[in-house]
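Good morning N.,

You mentioned wanting to compare the apo and holo forms, so I went ahead and generated the holo version with 1,3-dihydroxyacetonephosphate. This is what I fed in:
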Amino acid sequence: MSTPNRFKVTVVGSGNWGTTTAKIVAENVAIHTNVFDPEVRMWVFEEVLDGEKLSEIINTRHENIKYLPGVKLPSNLIAVPDLVSAVEGSQLLVFNVPHQFLSRICKQLKGHISSKVRAISCLKGLEVDDQGVRLLSDYITGELGIHCGVLSGANLAPEVALEKYSETTIAYPLPENHYPGDATGETWQMLFHRPYFHVRVVNDIAGVSIAGALKNVVALAAGFVEGKGWGENAKAAIMRRGIIEMIKFCKIFFNKNEIETFTQESAGIADLITTCAAGRNVRVGSEMARSGRSVEEVEAELLNGQSAQGMVTAKEIHSLLENKGLLDEFPLLEITYQMAFNGYDIDNLPAFFEKIR
Ligand SMILES: NC(=O)C1=CN([C@@H]2O[C@H](COP(=O)(O)OP(=O)(O)OC[C@H]3O[C@@H](n4cnc5c(N)ncnc54)[C@H](O)[C@@H]3O)[C@@H](O)[C@H]2O)C=CC1
Ligand SMILES: O=C(CO)COP(=O)(O)O
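and this is what came out, ligand included:
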């Protein structure tokens, strides 16, 4: 592959956040035409809605009527249902799919991407297997052999899509095989920064990723107490314990102690606050506690095909902590798993916290 004059961009994913980030990117490439190719492709997991293909609806009506209804998309954003065609010839990839679909997507892409391609992961989650835990950006690098940074922050997609102001954090340390004309943190900032979407660039990939992944589990717990009608003080207590465990997780599993990422960047306490206020995880947790229904039933009723990633992450973290003999070190994360999957009674929470102090 020759060094590109202009970066061509593909967004892999077209859910609630996937479509929102694709809108942002399409707006920016239309402005910075000297840096980016003016057309952005978005891979769409094809669905048929009332006899019409979602990709065709997006390309003709410029709206993702299922995952981001009511938001006009730029006409330079092209929906492509074939994954390999969607990424062909792109130098910059933005990964933005629910975590549970990432491994199949990477398998399909293997062998179709040059090692000079660069990526950003907007996913919030972690990869856990028998070996331990990995950041999703590292997972993408491992599967596809491309350098990958992360974007994460206090970014409820429905607000960002309506261009209501928010901040985000991009972590993009330069790769060892950086080459002339290669993308830098500044390139990614140019691709994502909008007057309504303020981007700060840092190097702490682990901190930014862990903040995004674990706050979803904490938000579930916040939802559980909200659903019980316990009020804002209880929710604040959950959040306080949550941030302690997020920082501790980063230290134990990634040997990283950059607390400033959690306190000073959007990926951290700010994301925890916004998610616990109005995210899908808090809404799902709240409704589960209120109604006693399963996550599947509640997701089906509230989310119309979207997913509460905290459930996936809670399960993975539990198996990691169990394998490593560290369940007692992360009581909030573990109790959230027990409440979500094993019917642990939420009313026991205060007594549980009494024991651990
Ligand atoms: N929605 C939000 O406000 C934010 C989400 N995030 C993160 O971004 C990531 C992506 O989330 P969203 O875009 O909101 O997704 P979403 O929760 O809207 O999920 C729906 C997406 O999953 C796709 N899908 C369904 N079945 C599939 C299959 N079998 N294979 C492949 N794809 C399939 C759908 O086509 C659709 O694009 C997640 O990790 C999430 O935590 C991060 C910040 C904000
Ligand atoms: O990550 C988010 C906000 O920053 C979105 O959170 P939910 O997935 O809980 O909606």
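The mean pLDDT is 96.

Happy to go through it together on a call whenever suits you.

Best,
F.
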